[in-house]
Specification:
Layout lengths: L1 H6 L9 E3 L4 E2 L4 E4 L3 E3 L4 E2 L4 E4 L4 E3 L4 E2 L4 E2 L20 E3 L4 E2 L4 E2 L3 E2 L4 E2 L4 E2 L4 E2 L4 E2 L4 E2 L4 E2 L3 E5 L5 E5 L6 H24 L10
Parallel strand pairs: 1-4, 2-5, 3-6, 4-7, 5-8, 6-9, 7-10, 8-11, 9-12, 10-13, 11-14, 12-15, 13-16, 14-17, 15-18, 16-19, 17-20
Antiparallel strand pairs: 20-21
Length: 206
């Protein structure tokens, strides 16, 4: 019952928004806060996805897919952390182009690099940073202030811990072909979602 009552509470103030006209925002997605929210071209917010700009700006790049029940944005003031300094509004959350957040992911990282995948119910804590073309596995946690280099896979080791491995450096012809195919598949996925999710941009621009 408590969760049902919580879902009926007001979503909070409507933030100042800059939303590309080709973005797809589901009717039950939530944008809340007082700092700016920016959503790039062809980005998708699934039902019940939340962008929270209460304590800093939020930016979602082009061709990003923000899955159902994802939460993007700081949940508390940066100065509330004993390890991460800063003032409210100085630093927000940036999700770069062509990044996918799978359902239930929580992203408070200052940056998620281009082309990364944050898997189901993974958590990126405040002050952390994830490089380009990374994959953070299901239920994995990136600690506060931790930096994950480009092309890194973070995964559970089968026990209580997590491990990392680096992908190849890339740059070869084969790697470029694979990357081009991945981007094309992502764009086709967005076009399918465009037909399935009625967009409600107007309610956030008035």
């Amino acid at each position: 019952m408590a969760s049902k009552r919580a879902s009926l509470l007001p979503a909070g103030p409507k933030p100042p928004c800059t939303i590309h006209p080709t973005a797809i925002i589901a009717d039950t997605a939530v944008l809340s806060g007082t700092f700016p929210v920016t959503i790039g071209a062809n980005a998708v917010l699934h039902p019940r996805a939340k962008l929270l700009s209460t304590y800093g700006p939020v930016s979602v790049g082009a061709w990003c897919v923000i899955g159902e029940r994802c939460v993007v944005g700081l949940s508390s003031p940066p100065s509330a952390s004993k390890d991460i300094g800063g003032k409210v509004g100085e630093e927000g959350v940036v999700v770069e182009d062509a990044t996918t957040l799978e359902p239930g992911a929580v992203v408070e990282a200052k940056r998620v690099g281009q082309g990364s995948v944050i898997d189901v119910r993974a958590r990126l804590n405040p002050g952390s940073s994830v490089g380009a073309k990374c994959k953070i596995g299901p239920l994995c946690v990136v600690a506060e202030g931790e930096s994950v280099p480009d092309r890194t896979v973070v995964y559970h080791d089968g026990g209580a811990g997590m491990r990392r491995r680096r992908r190849g450096r890339g740059g070869g012809e084969g790697e470029e072909r694979v990357e081009a195919l991945r981007l094309e598949a992502g764009r086709r996925h967005v076009e399918v979602l465009r037909r399935l999710i009625p967009t409600q941009i107007a309610k956030w621009q008035t």
